[in-house]
Amino acid sequence: MSLQVVWLKRDLRIRDHAPLCEAAARGPCLVLYVYEPEVFQAPEFDPSHLVFINECLAELDHRLRERAGRVTFRVGRMPDVLEELHRAHRIADLWSHEETGTAVTYARDRRVAAWAQERGVRWHEIPQNGVIRRLRSRDGWSRRWLERMNRPVVAPPEALRPVAGVDPGRPQSPADLCLPPSEKREAQRGGESVAHEVLYSFLHERGVSYRDALSSPVTAAEGCSRLSSYLAWGAISLRQVHQATEARRAALRQARAAGRAVDARWARSLSAFSGRLRWHCHFIQKLEDEPRIEFENMSRAYDGLRENEFDPNRFAAWCTGQTGYPLVDACMRCLHRTGWINFRMRAMLASFAAYHLWLHWRPTAVFLARHFLDFEPGIHFAQFQMQSGVTGINTVRIYSPIKQVRDQDPRGAFIRRYVPELRDVPDEYVAEPHKMPLAVQHACGCGIGRDYPPPIVDHAAAYQEARRRMYAIRRTADARTEAQRVYRKHGSRQRPGR
User: Fold this and answer.
1) What is the helix, strand, coil percentage profile of the chain, to 5?
2) Between 229 and which of 84, 154, 374, 447 could a Cys-Cys bridge form, CB atoms 3.0 to 4.6 Å apart?
3) Whose CA is closest to 379, among 287, 454, 301?
4) What is the reported pLDDT for 141?
């Protein structure tokens, strides 16, 4: 019998797992998860990621045991782990999903490919989302995405043929890997069953207000899908989410046609959510097509814009939520506790770092990658470049952290939760506490410069200077030429969300 190895990466589920089903149908099947030092020691990795991964693996191991299988755990560098298994058991086929990851995992995959070719092991990589390898043109991409999403969901194998004589190993805790414990006490719990519970509650209960709730941090935690972490680590597939969403939309249309009362908000909210599922793969495709954008400006016309002006004191204030701008600080502190914040607030954090503090996007992106439980490299680095204005093809958006309070948290409910220094500040000063008269500061027990910092920069001055510098480059011939190149390579041929 030829040994089949299923290599788990960001696909920690049993349902809609094509590599697992293909391997199970061909012979004795070893399902492998490897704790790779170069991955968990990378600057983007956080112990909270490991906790979530282990929670997903615990459930997956349980589901496999019900089918006479199990997860085999190893610690080591790839393909060294594969070589050890191959010497003992002769691997015939290696199965995995395609992954659009960081430079670390990309280099690792190249090593595995070379090893497999040298050893005569057939490595089968199967797509699990709408990202297309070796894409020649973005033309027709949306159609191909939809075709993939509409393929049947793969049922889990009924049984696996176990491999005798293999030490199963054990899951690794942060302490086992010499990592500190996770500090995110309010992070989402991992696992495939939890992912499907979250999906159901969104499609049948919480999602009715999605379109109205997604922008404000006050309402987004409940009103957004909250599926991003499960998608990022593969506890649920994008195809499953897409098909469940379309089935729910169809059921609501049928109910309305039958004369039953249906909240009109459902149609708008699920239409908006459906568009964002395309947006998900649209951004990952950028990193797949051009891996260098993990480190380099998408438009090279912006090289040198911020690299030589990095202020470590400003960076430290931003990282710790001590900028003197309450919503910026509340969002950052929320991330430290939960690992999640809604998209508009992520955009505001990136914008504030890039324009108000004039920080290069790379170190700020790496810092937030650690704190985002749902860190997805393709989305993350492309989005940071977009919010920092260095793609050359997107509108320069400079968020006002003061206006965002007035629009998204006017009573300061979110701010007061995460910035307790401002708990008793009157509503009229919650956006700009530094404008409180001394008597008010004394009355509410919040002294500016003592209990809470004054603004690290002046908003109006920073806004004007950032616009001046951005548009000075944007108007150049080099920037226009680069914008055309970037659009040909990465531009959407159909606006995401439409």
Assistant:
1) 55, 5, 40
2) 374
3) 287
4) 93
C-alpha 213/C-alpha 414 separation (Å) is: 14
pLDDT at res. 497: 39
Where, residue-wise, is CATH 1.10.579.10 in the chain? 294-490
Please list the residues that pair with 31 across neighbouring strands.
Answer: 6, 71
Count of positions (residues) in the chain: 498
Q: Per CATH, is 192-289 categorized as 1.25.40? A: yes
pLDDT computed for residue 316 by the predictor = 98
DSSP-derived letter for residue 251 is H
Which CATH number, 2.40.30.10, 3.40.50.620, 3.40.50.720, 3.40.50.1000, labels domain 3-128? 3.40.50.620
Q: Where in the chain is the domain with CATH 1.25.40?
A: 192-289
The H or E element containing residue 484 is helix 477-490
Question: What pLDDT score does 491 carry?
Answer: 85
pLDDT of 498: 35
Q: How far apart are the first and last CA of the chain?
A: 50
Give the position of tokens 């439409």: 498
HSE-CB of 212 using CA atoms within 13 angstroms:
7
Per DSSP, the three-state class of 306 is: coil
Phi and psi at 122, nearest 5°, equal -85, 120
Q: Where in the chain is the domain with CATH 3.40.50.620?
A: 3-128
Assigned CATH for 294-490: 1.10.579.10
What pLDDT, on a 0 to 100 scale, did the predictor assign at position 278? 93
HSE (side-chain half, CA atoms, 13 Å) at 349: 33
Q: Quick check: 388 and 361 in contact, CB under 8 A?
A: yes
Q: How far is CA 50 from CA 10, 44, 80, 179, in A?
A: 12, 12, 21, 10
Q: What is the mean pLDDT of each run of 10 residues along the chain (498 residues)?
A: 92 98 97 98 98 98 97 98 96 98 98 98 97 93 96 97 94 97 97 98 97 96 98 98 98 97 96 95 96 96 93 98 98 98 97 98 98 97 96 93 97 98 97 97 97 98 97 95 93 57
Q: Helix, strand or coil for residue 435?
A: helix
What pLDDT shows up at residue 495? 52
In a 13 Å sphere around the CA of 241, the CA atoms on its Cβ side amount to 30
176: how many CB neighbours lie within 10 A of its CB?
A: 12
- The burial of 494, by beta-carbon neighbours within 10 Å (0-12 exposed, 13-18 middle, 19 or more buried), is given as middle
